[in-house]
Amino acid sequence: MSQRIKIAQKDGKVSVEERTSAASIFERSVPGRTGFSLPAESADTAKKVDDAIPARFRRKSRAALPEVGELDVVRHFTHLSTRTLGVDTTFYPLGSCTMKYNPKINEDIAALPGNCHVHPHQPADTMQGLLKVYHDTAEILGKLTGLPGVSLQPAAGAHGEFTALLVMKAYFESRGEAHRNEVIIPDTAHGTNPASALRCGLEAVNIQSDSRGRVNIEELKSRLGPNTACMMITNPNTLGLFEDQIHEVAELIHAAGALIYLDGANFNAIVGRVRPADFGADMMHINVHKTFSIPHGGGGPGAGPICVRDFLAPFLPAPHIKFDGTSYSFDHNCPQSIGKVRSYFGNVNNVMRTYVYLRQLGEEGVRQIASYAVLNANYLLSLLAGAYDVPFGRRCMHEFVINATRQKNQGARAMDIAKKILDYGFHPPTTYFPLIVPEALMIEPTETESKETLELFAAAMLEIARLSAEDSSQVTAAPQSTPVTRMDELAAARQPVLSWPDSK
Amino acid sequence: MPVPPDVRFLKSHEWARKDGDLIAVGVSDYAIDQLNKEIVFLELPPVGRNVSVGAVFGVIEAVKAASDLYSPVAGKVVEVNESLPDNPTLLADDPYGAGWMIKVAPSSPADMDALLSVADYQKFCETEAHH
Q1: ipTM exceeds 0.85, yes or no
Q2: Which terminus of chain B has fewer CB atoms gathered within 10 Å of its CB, N or C?
Q3: Strand pairing partners for A318?
């Protein structure tokens, strides 16, 4: 609590007063204070700077930056880190995002000098260990997906989608079918799917779900045609439901000469149990932060490996990693490759973390990821299904969606419920996604949470449902126990204050 | 909220209403309510743009989500409610009046006949809410 106490000295007296918020780093600023000392600037250096940066590009006035010492900076950021929530501090059931615990041993191994001090320009024969990790990780991913062509280059899941669609385009071009430019995408899809398609110069064709929350087969049939390039499908989908007609979907797509792209975002629900190639997937990405274990990016650095069928493999990003039985090398001779999508070999540390995670668990352990992810979600669903409406039944895969219209009619919207959850010390679930469920709360407990944690969270959710029914103002005022209470999100979006001087 | 009886709807929640020879277009109070009435940003087409039935004519963005706006009728945009992007509260306060978005000179006035009546639209919203 010390950050909330202000000790002020005035007229020789010391007073202690509670503050509403801690001092920002700007308030800690003292003119002239610095956290570093540099050698005095020589005439020679000044001239070099002048030569390097023409006068018209130089600032006329000093930047309004805080003037602080190193300790001030450390305290500022350490303090901020205590005012947030993360999976290392609390349960974080953010549906679709799979906020699971990342074992720390992955960090230890990834930090070893043989991994993190390798230079990308080193000759291949001086980094055989790293190349073996790459080779073996690709092999394991190929086995788990049934799709043997693997690229570890893409830097994130959406980057993987983009890369795989480029691979697909190159494949169709090689067959004289460059006219195929339509990508069929269900309305439950992640927004990255249409974005990736458009970014590749393809056209997104949206189809609606049926009343069971699955692909509407009749609508799919009506949208298939000679220009269909692929269908991007998430399985299990974002409603936490297994697409039980996936064989029929794949048959229809393949009969039209198109391909199946599996959005691997929910692979953690089936990994080790189902190989996507067996239900018809021709290519997919894996969000290794969700299915396996790397830190969540918030934009990066991440990893989104892609796995494809043999006939697509020649088009994968270059270089490919080759093993001749004794040593590993880079194969730059890939004439059909789409080229590079990321400098060097992707985010090496994340490949290492993935490898360590997979080797720690082994084959049987990987099978248990899916078992526990599904068991935990179903247990939590069963605890909440009475107090909240669940539109797609009482069985789910690794996540489920609540429709909080009942609570909204009492006065507490899904967003209010999410804010209230903060008062119980949990991170809220995803709100208002997928878009086809009104007042959606999308809950994904993940496989790493204990039964006790799930029960505590359920108790909080049941209490919120009770408060909503009793007097919804007890919910809509939330959060009240957090460092920052209810924010005006509308004003923040319409009139953002983006720099310190503007906020004064 | 009472809805004027001559308003017609798309299932994607845009409305159309005859206004002399023109057709005014906006979005329903149900849709604005679904967006928690927190409209952040509105992108409308310029005057002169051609629109067609079911095609995107603009974007509405709320704190909660962003959506494309689909035209209920075909024709040419002849008027745009220029003050609306700066006063998005009109969308919630007066969706079928001051909250109109564009006025279209229809190329096929019969487009109106294919749209949902007030009663059918309200029935549709009820089933959607219990999805």
Answers
A1: no
A2: N
A3: none
Average pLDDT, integer, range A456-464: 98
> Domains in chain B: how many in total?
1
Length of chain A: 504
Q: Check whether residue A299 and residue A320 sit in a common domain.
A: yes
First to last CA, chain A: 25
Q: How far is CA A328 from CA A217, A222, A321, in A?
A: 46, 48, 7
pLDDT tens for each residue of B16-50: 999 999 999 999 999 998 888 889 999 999 999 99
| Mean pLDDT of all residues in A126-141 | 96
Q: Enumerate residues 192 to 231 of chain A having a beta carbon within 8 A of any beta carbon in chain B.
A: none
The answer to whether position A64 is within a domain reads no
| Residue A346 within a domain | yes
| Chain A interface includes B47 (CB < 8 A) | no
Which 63-92 residues of chain B touch chain A by CB within 8 A?
Answer: 63-65
Q: Is the dihedral of CA B97, B100, B106, B111 positive or negative?
A: negative
Hey, how many other C-beta atoms are within 10 angstroms of the C-beta on A3?
Answer: 15
What stretches of B1-131 adopt beta strand conformation (E)? 8-9, 14-19, 22-27, 39-43, 50-51, 56-62, 66-70, 75-80, 102-106
Tell me which residue range forms the domain holding B17: 8-125
d(CA A120, CA B43) in angstroms, rounded, equals 46
pTM of the model: 0.86
Task: Confirm if B22 and B103 have CB atoms less than 8 A apart.
Answer: yes
Strands A259-263 and B22-27: unpaired
Q: Which uninterrupted H or E stretch holds A251?
A: helix A246-255
> Is the Cβ–Cβ distance between A169 and A181 less than 8 Å?
no
CA distance A237 to A439: 18
What residues of A are in contact with residue B59 (Cβ under 8 Å)?
A: none
3-state secondary structure of A503: helix
Partner residue opposite A438 with nearest CB, options B34, B41, B63: B34
Same domain assignment for residues A166 and A263: yes
CATH assignment of the domain containing B23: 2.40.50.100
DSSP secondary structure of A190-244:
-THHHHHHHHTT-EEEEE-B-TTSSB-HHHHHHH--TTEEEEEEESS-TTS---T
Residue A280 falls inside a structural domain: yes
Quote the number of domains for chain A: 2
CATH number of the structural domain spanning residue A252: 3.40.640.10
- Are A315 and A421 contained in the same domain? no
